[in-house]
Amino acid sequence: MIRLCKEKLGITHVPSEIKKPFNGEDILTHFNIKRVDAEKVAIVGDRLLTDILLGNLNGMYTIYTYPIEKSGDAWNVKPLRYLEEIVLDKVFNIRF
User: Fold this and answer.
1) How high is the mean pLDDT in each 10-residue block of the chain (96 residues)?
2) CA distance 52 to 9
3) Is 83 helix (H, G, I), strand (E, B) or coil?
4) In terms of C-beta density within 10 A (0-12 exposed, 13-18 middle, 19 or more buried), how is residue 59 classed?
5) CA dihedral in degrees (59, 64, 47, 61; nearest 10)?
């Protein structure tokens, strides 16, 4: 999916080696952007506790998407996705 988005939109992505959510400086460095220009970066992700948290902690624009495919999630991601769905439901009144 990332490859398709990159090709169709002509954008780049954060390499999987950069772990989220507490590495905003690494991401800005990857894109050669200074912290004061962090709002020039948009983080698109399907995880509230990694992708969206990372962007918000670092002053980046964030776009939450519903997970396209959850069946390949690692064992430790499944309970976190459940927690994220509770947050979306109870805090933001968003249900999928």
Assistant:
1) 79 76 82 80 88 89 86 87 91 84
2) 20
3) helix
4) middle
5) -10
